[in-house]
Structures are given as structure tokens and as C-alpha cells.
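In the current project phase, we have settled on a layout for protein records. One protein thus recorded is set out beneath this paragraph:
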Amino acid sequence: MPRPPAHASRDGVQRGSIDAVLRTRYAGTRKLRLNYELVGAAMAPVVLVAGGISAHRHVAANAVDPSAGWAQGLLDAGRTLDPAKLRVLAFDYVGADGSIDAPIDTADQADAIALLLDALGVDVLAGYVGYSYGALVGLQLAVHHPQRLRKLVAVSGVHRPHPYAAAWRALQRKAVALGRLQCADEQGLSLARQFAMLSYRTPEEFAERFDAAPEVCNGQVRVAAEDYLDAAGAKFVARVSATAWLRLSESIDLHRVDPAQVGVPVSVIAVEGDRLVPMDDAVALIEGLAGRGRLRVLRSPYGHDAFLKETDRINALLASELFAGSAVTGPAVGVSA
């Protein structure tokens, strides 16, 4: 059983950690510290929000941590995830601190969520919003712990990785491995992130933003997008370790779920032009859910990153999907003090 949480609390924000023992699929039984942030009105229904492999527990600025979160804007006043009417829970993924240098299964993350809910005294989540890797973890939670959530919204994430996307990630991991051979871990990870940016975004966006003639600098040709890619790589290596990124990247490719075993209603939000999660895979998931799923399609030039860039449109979809057929009323899902 997880130990009770240690936390700081202020103005409806609870931020802390729990110590837990997790039996993983590939890395053995591990003693872990699960870091979380819980924001919102006391005794309100709890919705868990989980993002990509570089996301973390800080979703948006709050009284305890005023810095911008990874999904800044989605928790603003009047939004579907407004903490004035919900409690929004997020956590740091298992392995995100680089402490596990072994394969990590998305089902391990789902089991960790169950331990966290136990420690916080949350019997059932009113909803789960998962984007990218977070959608994969949500599907595992709906298979292994369906009694812990009422509704799953899976954005840009399905039941299995597409072989094309897996090939992209394999090349990114080779870039990190090459960097390590050259004693240049940061350069390898930066290059991997730059490769990733090309898979997250679309050719249409690059055509609009970087349609400028190349320049010759110090005898070498430099194209218009390189400053953007370099900045993305530098920002990433400043906050993510190579080990954490490698193992969570692998975790995406290990992911497998049988849609027939998903035990809760699922809204699948797919993005046209998403090069990592093609529309055909979203349709296959819906078909496998056999009546327990609903597909919504978002057209965006931002591809896989649409969840992070299209705040207004994502909020509108969450408004129609997260509590479809129900209201955010009735018995509260309590959280222990």
C-alpha cells in the first residue's frame, strides 16, 4: 500500500508526493516516489489530465507554482477543466526522473495511477483526459482498473503504435545512442528532439513559417527552420534526461491494448494530418470498442501537437465529450485532506 501523501496546500492547490511500491512488467518491483499536483474546489469531482512523455504534474499556473504549465490555458476560468468546478489531478510519469533504466510499460503507469488514487482517497475519477502518451496510459487504466474512472477522452493516442511512428522514434533513439558514444549526451538528445518536432508538426505549418531562402553562414548552408529546431532541442535537454526520454520513448512502442477489453466509455479525438497517429488507427480503435466509443475529428495544421496549440477548439471538444450524457453534479468524489 502507498504511504499517505506529503504535500503543500494553498488556495485549492495540493502539491506533493507519495511513496509507493510498484510491481512493473519489465523492471521488477520498485520503490517509487509519485509526484502529483491537484488543483481545484474542495470535494469537487476529480479529472486526471495526462500529456506526452515530456509532460509532468504541473498542467497550469496556480497559487503554489505560478510558472506556466505544459497545457497552459486549458484550466482558465470558464474552460471545461476550470478548477472552480473540478479538481484537476496530474502526476509525473514513472521513470520521468531517469531513475529507471529498464523498459517501462504503459500499464505500469496505469497501476501507478491506481496507487496514487488510493493514497489521495479518490475512489473514482469523474474523467480522464489523455493526450498522446497520456491517452495510451488512459486506455491501460480503462483495461486494468475500469472501476477507477467513468469516462476516458483519448486525444492523439490509440491502442497500438503505428509502424511508421515507431520507426521515427527508433531513429531518434539511435541519435541519442550516437551522442552517448561521442560523450555528447545533450547533443544527441537535442537532435532526437529536433527529429521529433518534424513528426509532431505538419509540412503545411513549416511551409507557412519557414518559406525563406537558405543562407550561407561560414561556408555552410543553413535553412530557415534550423533556428527553430535548435531552440526546441536546447529547451528540451534543459529539463529532460536522456535516460528518462529513452525509456519513455520505448514505452510508447511497447504499448498494446485490446480495445475489446476497455471497460469504460471512450471519446477518441483524432487530428487530421497527425503523422504519428493516423486517422485509420483511430477508426480501428473505435471499431474495436464496439459501441463504447465515439470519434471526433479535429482539422489542424499543428498535427500531433494540436492538443497543445488549439486551446479553444480542444476545450470545445472536451466540453462536449468529457461529461457527455452527464453533468458535473451529484455526489462529490472526495479527496482526503
Summary: The two ends are 18 Å apart (CA to CA). The longest helix spans residues 163-181. The CA atoms of residues 36 and 127 lie 17 Å apart.
